[in-house]
Amino acid sequence: MPSPSHRTAPWQPGDVREAAGGLFALALATFVAITTELVPVGLLPLISDDLDVSEGVAGLLVTAYAFMVAALAVPLTSATRKLPRKTLLLTTLGIYVLSNVIVAVAPTFALVAVARALGGAAHAVFFSVSIGYASRLVRPHLAGRALALVTLGASAGFVLGVPLTTSLGTAVGWRTSFLVLAGACALAGVLTALLLPSVAGGGTPPADAARGARRTALAQVTSANALAYLGHYTVYTYVSVLLLAAGLATAALGPALLLIGALGLLGAWYAAARLDVRLRQTTVVTLGVVAAGILALGLTFPGTVGTLAAAAVWSIGFGAVAAVFQTAAIRTRGASPDVVGALVNSTANIGIGGGAALGALVLDGVGLPAVPYVGVALVVAALVVVLVARRAFPAGPAVEQTAE
């Protein structure tokens, strides 16, 4: 029988196989977190009709959520830095449950928006902590693969979460989708409690002569991250509107999003295989594919086949984006893993919320056909930052370092 000291011994970072249970738990929690954030995307037409608001206004449900994350990620992560990491993650999953239940029963758009803001506050902490958590489960030179495996949960949110909640919503009502999602968040919380080992916090890099260069590299990574997400979500927030305008039947919207999203797993697989070996090349290829797909979407819209094919290419590229920027940010060692996670989380959600708002402005102003062109310009800007910032996105493999 193991001794009490053995049972309570802190987790020691090892290889990916040793950390498999914890990585699976984080991937599962990430799946429900991403689905919670993005579930309005496929349901915008239904929500806007039921609550008597425009599709552009309904899209602000994504914006409000994301801006809560952007504003609160760093301060909440700092305020909770002394709390046990696992307890903090489980608390955020509980708040996801509450947020989704309130949305499901809310009689007005205003109350739906308040509930989404509550979920956004939980999200601010969840992803900030989970990024650092995943990097602590394995030795430093394996962080890219660990983060890529966890972000498979995010890809699954696109592949399964959003399309399935969209299909469910179109079949039996959008409110039912939120209730089912609340149950999924509760289940993820139970499994996370059982499978995820506890890890220690801390790990702030030393204040040495290279600190300024590390912080500059981190700033470059997070800037490119914000631009990439801004470009993507300018278009993706309104992908259901684009597909319907391209001639897709409402009943086919969920299955189409499912098939398109499934291709994102190819991008996630590519990231898992390459990030710890060729970070710079992987980043350039990823953003290049995203930009090409969104540009093709603009050129082929409103043709149904061309729009679907372009969206598929775009999805393949975006499947790798989260892991690429999380890994690049962690490897800069510009701050502690939790603060790095908060900065990646915050800048990604500046892009998500800003993209939803920018897309709404373009949609209500210039018109739907212009949305992809605005999006691709921003993704290209992110690619330019990557090409210039060679230190932030190094070409060589990760080097194992002594844990600090």
TrEMBL record:
Domain Major facilitator superfamily (MFS) profile: 22-393
Entry membrane topology: Multi-pass membrane protein
InterPro entries: MFS (IPR011701), MFS_dom (IPR020846), MFS_Efflux_Transporters (IPR050189), MFS_trans_sf (IPR036259)
Gene3D superfamilies, per database record: MFS general substrate transporter like domains (1.20.1250.20)
Subcellular location: Cell membrane
Transmembrane segments annotated in the record for this chain: 21-44, 56-76, 88-107, 113-134, 146-166, 178-196, 217-236, 242-272, 284-302, 308-330, 342-363, 369-389
Keywords: Cell membrane, Membrane, Transmembrane, Transmembrane helix
Main location (coarse class): membrane
UniProt keyword Chloroplast, yes or no: no
Protein name stated in the entry: MFS transporter
Record organism: Promicromonospora alba
Organismal lineage: Bacteria, Bacillati, Actinomycetota, Actinomycetes, Micrococcales
